[in-house]
Amino acid sequence: MEDLKIDQYGDELYSALRERRMVEPLTEREPKITIADAYEVSLRLLARRQADGEVVIGKKIGVTSKAVQNMLGVHRPDFGYLTDRMVYSNGDDVAVSEEMIQPRAEGEIAFILKQDLAGPGVTNAEVMAATAGVMACFEIVDSRIRNWEIKIQDTIADNASCGVFVLGDALVDPDDVDLTTCGMVLEKNGEIVATGAGAAALGSPVNAVAWLANTLGEYGIGLRAGEVILSGSLAPLIPVVAGDSMHMRIGGIGSAAVRFV
Q1: Helix (H, G, I), strand (E, B), or coil: what is residue 146?
Q2: Between β-strands 228-233 and 56-62, what pairing exists: parallel, antiparallel or unpaired?
Q3: How many domains is the chain built from?
Q4: What percent of the chain has pLDDT above 90?
Q5: Which of 40, 47, 101, 120 is deepest in the core (most CB within 10 A)?
């Protein structure tokens, strides 16, 4: 895709983010858009956000679980960027009625890195050695694409449909928990709405982080010490609106809570 169109779509998605409005799927308007094109669009969107003063503090892996892949009709993972404007603390209020368009909540495991990771060739053992700790986490995804009618290129261009994220109540040594079998219980307004386990994220969230490091390595991008890495949803996405509250617990790791206003 020519640079002019890449900039055009990146600017359109940036405006949609700031104005809280949906746009038509890029794949309907550009049937030949490639995954490489979509990542270029996402970088234009990120550049616009950085020009506003946002700072990259991590990365996210999207569409890792079969439940989410089947829900969205997207059958391969992708990645996006996290900025300091996206992060919330455990128990915070998130103003979805003022800041988001069509939000959905997902429970996942966040990795906090203490060492850089640069692919290709990053192994699971290297991911574990580079991780300072893991945390329970909510990611509140949001799509600027009309009614979540997305193909893989649409969600990639839209920063992997990232909205905001909420870090949980504890940082746990990854060696102290089985990240494959650890179970998650997700509650909405006091009722259990989903369960999952670490294995839902590409067989293990460690696999997911290794995939991210190696995929980013193809673009000359590394994971950096101090960054937050969201490893992917462990259960189906849960639509949320103002007035909802959610709580989740992951065995051996901790819990996270968020209220929507």
Answers
A1: helix
A2: parallel
A3: 1
A4: 90
A5: 40
